[in-house]
Amino acid sequence: MRSVAEHAALVAGLIRGTPVERLPLDQAAGLVLGTDLRATIDLPPFPNSAMDGYAVRAVEVASAPVEMVVSQDIPAGRLGVPPLAPGTVARIMTGAPIPDGADAVVPVEQTSVTPAGTDRVRIDVATVVGRHVRSQGSDVMAGAVVLTRGAHLGAPQIGLAAALGNAELSVHRPLRVLVLSTGSELIAPGNPLQRGQIYESNAPMLAAAISAAGARPTVAHFVADDVDEFRSAFAAAAIGADLVVTSGGVSAGAYEVVKDALTGRAVEFAKVAMQPGMPQGAGAVEIDCSGSPARSVPVVTLPGNPVSSFVSFEVFLRPAILAAMGHPPTRQHRRTRLLPLAEPLSSIHGKREFRRGLLDPAAGTVASFGGRGSHLLGWLAGADCLLVVPEEVAELAAGDPVEVWDLT
Ligand code: AMP
Ligand code: MG
């Protein structure tokens, strides 16, 4: 039997890194920056007010209270603001440009209305130069590298890129992943179910997992357990894919359509020492690109049982997809930690077991959730982590540490 690490290395080695492309900002979230990002402007780009209040010359408001003439009104977004006339103040809103000559802002809460109305204001609290003024470049200086190549583009990084005026970013483009399910028993959700049929659930599940990793899934319509049908669906759908993921048809029975169709086409089928997910396959398949030269596309064949499919994705595909999209090793894996078991747990000797788990944050423990069966999708959906029990371990006692992969 092949080890989990051996199969993981094979899968990772098949998938080529995606090229760096310019993508619009709204498509860059979750991806990895392909080049350093340098600021071309200062942030803030001009000195502006941190408060709603009055822009003043600090020297004229060095003691308080003092009554001042209000010479202008500066809302946010006003252009061409004239300098502040000496002996006056300007009513100013948060984010509005500080007029030349002003060097402090007195918040509106530290002022009082005067009988003269809005033409005059009483400043109740003295101020000093710079107070409540956001100076130009105090956040980011033009010319600085603000995000380095390899940075993960989360919400704050996207916000910063936009604030600096970038409509696009250079990113490792999403991996295009085709998902193709097999099984003559499958029907699409939304149709009436006959005895002997089940709803196709692996493709939607895998597509969701692929999207969550930042890659772009395409779901080919699933096919029956028929080699010719599989081959033609595969040939039609694989064009343009960077990776093909199949579900089902790889175990030891008859009608193993994926195995039958891809054996001898550079896909290796093997038993991997894990539970669930023992039957696996991976390789690179030549596809005919109608006219253009044939190319080979990596294919990873997952077992059909829903829990096996999901666990196999987590163990082999998710890290490989993230790596191909430029994520560093530290981000290719789920958050992993050791937590004490709330209850004893037995495991199969000689296989790495991936059990579904439930965390107890208050107790700081974890317990297995549901049985071993790889059809137990209801339990998988209720779990929040995977428990990883090594090959050589068969029994764990309550309180023993177990490796936990956070799924949330
Ligand atoms: P297989 O790997 O094709 O032998 O399938 C193993 C088990 O998983 C069988 O019980 C199948 O009915 C089930 N199964 C296979 N493919 C799917 C799928 N796409 N959605 C839901 N269940 C599936
Ligand atoms: Mg099947």
What is the helix tally?
A: 8
First-to-last CA distance: 31 Å
User: Care to count the β-strands?
Assistant: 28
Q: Tell me, what's the shape?
A: elongated
Largest sheet, order of strands side by side?
A: 7-4-6-5-9-8
Strand content range: 25-35%
The helicity comes to 10-25%
Give every kind of bound small molecule, once each.
adenosine monophosphate, magnesium ion
Q: What is the gyration radius calculated from CA atoms?
A: 31 Å
Biggest sheet statistics: 6 strands, mixed
Summed over residues and divided by their number, the pLDDT gives a mean of: 96
SSE class: alpha+beta
Contiguous uncertain segments of 5+ residues: none
Report on this structure.
There is one protein chain. This protein is an alpha+beta fold. Helix content is 19%, strand content 34%. The strands form eight sheets. The protein has a six-stranded mixed sheet, with no helix packed on it. A hairpin with a 4-residue loop joins strand 24 and strand 25. Helix 1 packs across helix 6 and helix 3 packs parallel to helix 6. The mean pLDDT is 96. The structure holds adenosine monophosphate (AMP) and magnesium ion. The site of adenosine monophosphate has 17 residues, from helix 3.
Considering the chains and any ligands shown, give keywords for the structure.
alpha+beta; binds magnesium ion; 8 helices
Secondary-structure map:
Elements (H helix, E strand, L loop, with lengths): L3 H11 L5 E5 L12 E2 L9 E2 L3 E4 L9 E9 L13 E5 L11 E4 L3 E4 L2 E7 L9 E2 L10 E3 L7 H9 L4 E5 L3 E7 L3 E2 L10 E2 L2 H11 L3 E8 L3 H12 L4 E5 L9 H6 L4 E5 L2 E2 L3 E11 L2 E11 L3 H19 L4 H4 L3 E5 L4 E2 L5 E9 L4 E4 L8 H6 L2 E5 L5 E2 L4 E6 L2
Parallel strand pairs: 5-6, 13-16, 13-17, 14-15, 17-21, 19-24
Antiparallel strand pairs: 1-12, 2-11, 3-10, 4-6, 4-7, 5-9, 8-9, 18-20, 20-21, 22-28, 23-27, 24-25, 24-26, 26-28
Bound molecules: adenosine monophosphate and magnesium ion.
Adenosine monophosphate binds next to helix 3.
